[in-house]
Write a structure and sequence with these properties.
The chain has seven helices and six strands; from the N terminus they run H-E-H-E-H-E-H-E-H-H-E-E-H. It is of the alpha/beta class. A six-stranded parallel sheet has the order 2-1-3-4-5-6, sandwiched between helices. Helix 3 packs across helix 4.
Length: about 230
């Protein structure tokens, strides 16, 4: 073989080497599905500091993590669901992603579920996670229902609760998960959180807001978004 032929083969080998490794390398370097964090009643995006730090430690970037800020006293179906739909479109446009993941705490579970069930969200959402969501209502909401629309939406048997419970509670091909606590002081009854068709995971004896900072819950949420596994410990 001539020197020129050997050099040509060597060049070809160098060219093919990265090409053979490209699929695995591409998978490793592929961006994560963007995650939208939705806070609960009377809260703000600041509650997500610990959890977003955990996501970043797992390799997520700021450009893949989003927090939706909204008026927690507005109507779930008449106002918030539509505004959330617009925010999802904004995130998808900004990131170029076809779908997003959603992690919602408490009341934030309701407008995001309404979007999934009645706003076309099953076409744009991959995973949906509820931490202590009043998914079948909470009797404590009667205390503020007289003057607050969001509280009315959280009461058992409300228009929003009945609408979300009607038919399939977990529609589409979205993967659903809930995390709930035996010691949640704001969700009454305690079995309000789990949904038929979802991966429903008990988090042990945690207060309502402790679901946001518990290491086991954090690990479980991140594992679910990556693999669909439900174990939190």
């Amino acid at each position: 073989m001539t020197r020129t032929a050997r050099l040509a083969l060597a060049a070809l080998a160098l060219a093919l080497g990265p090409a053979v490794a490209t699929p695995a390398a591409a998978r490793a370097a592929a961006p994560h599905t963007p995650v939208i964090f939705v806070h609960g009643y009377n809260a703000d995006p600041g509650v997500w500091g610990g959890l977003t730090d955990d996501f970043k430690a797992d390799g997520y970037t700021d450009a893949e993590l989003f927090t939706w800020s909204y008026d927690t006293h507005a109507s779930v179906n008449e106002t918030l669901s539509g505004r959330f739909a617009a925010y999802v479109d904004e995130v998808r446009q900004k990131t170029g992603a076809q779908r997003v993941d959603i992690v919602a705490h408490s009341f934030g579970s309701l407008p995001t579920r309404w979007y999934l069930k009645n706003g076309g969200g099953t076409a744009t959402v991959d995973h949906w996670v509820s931490l202590g969501g009043p998914n079948h209502g909470t009797r404590l909401a009667w205390a503020c229902a007289a003057w607050d629309q969001a509280c009315r939406d959280m009461t058992p048997g409300s228009y929003v609760q009945n609408g979300l419970a009607e038919g399939d509670e977990t529609p589409g091909e979205v993967r659903y998960a809930t995390f709930w606590s035996d010691c949640d002081e704001f969700i009454d009854p305690g079995d309000s959180v789990p949904l038929t068709g979802a991966t429903n995971t008990p988090a042990g004896c945690l207060k309502h807001n402790d679901l946001l900072g518990d290491d086991g819950v954090s690990a479980g949420v991140r594992r679910f978004l990556v693999s669909g596994q439900e174990n939190i410990r």
